[in-house]
């Protein structure tokens, strides 16, 4: 049996989600996602390192992500890591780390003012507010 790599990332949404529908009517949402950590350099300075991913969600999870996530929002993303390379229009090879999400939790409290998230997220198994003590690690 061939396995796949599971990945759990906590970070911030880097771009507003974009949703499209396939010819068969399946919702597909993508957005950029960043996770950062701090390391000390040999010179004693504290430096931030950021890893970027493209998150891909399908069906109901795609619709929820498109409706409730906005750039800058904190989130927990769990899914399958999919790495691929492709040739860009300029002829150069590009490499992409994608997370095919099967769970997204909204970590920021819902805002009652401002653009993006209005009120509380719709009740759904994959959506909702999470406190740090509820995370699985």
Set out the fold topology:
Elements: E1 6-13, E2 18-21, E3 27-40, E4 46-58, H1 59-68, E5 74-87, E6 93-106
Parallel strand pairs: 4-6
Antiparallel strand pairs: 1-3, 1-5, 2-3, 3-4, 5-6
Written account of the structure:
It contains one helix and six strands; from the N terminus they run E-E-E-E-H-E-E. By secondary structure, it is mainly beta. It has a single domain (6-134), classed as OB fold (Dihydrolipoamide Acetyltransferase, E2P) (Beta Barrel), CATH 2.40.50. Strands 1-3-4-6-5 form a five-stranded mixed barrel. The longest helix is centred in the middle third of the chain and has 10 residues, at 59-68. The chain is globular and about 55 Å long. The model is unreliable at 112-137 (pLDDT under 50).
The gist of it:
With 137 residues, this protein is mainly beta. It has 1 helix and 6 strands.
């Amino acid at each position: 049996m061939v396995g796949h790599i599971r990945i759990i990332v906590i970070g911030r949404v880097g771009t507003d989600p974009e949703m499209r529908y396939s010819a068969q009517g399946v919702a597909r949402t993508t957005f950029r996602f960043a996770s950062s950590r701090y390391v000390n350099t040999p010179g004693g300075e504290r430096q931030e390192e950021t890893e970027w991913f493209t998150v891909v969600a399908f069906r109901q999870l795609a619709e929820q992500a498109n409706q409730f996530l906005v750039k800058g929002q904190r989130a927990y993303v769990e899914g399958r890591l999919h790495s691929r390379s492709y040739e860009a229009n300029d002829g150069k090879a590009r490499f992409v780390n994608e997370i095919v999400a099967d769970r997204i939790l909204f970590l920021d409290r819902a805002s009652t003012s401002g653009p993006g998230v209005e009120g509380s997220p719709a009740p759904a198994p994959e959506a909702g507010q999470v406190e740090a003590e509820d995370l699985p690690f």
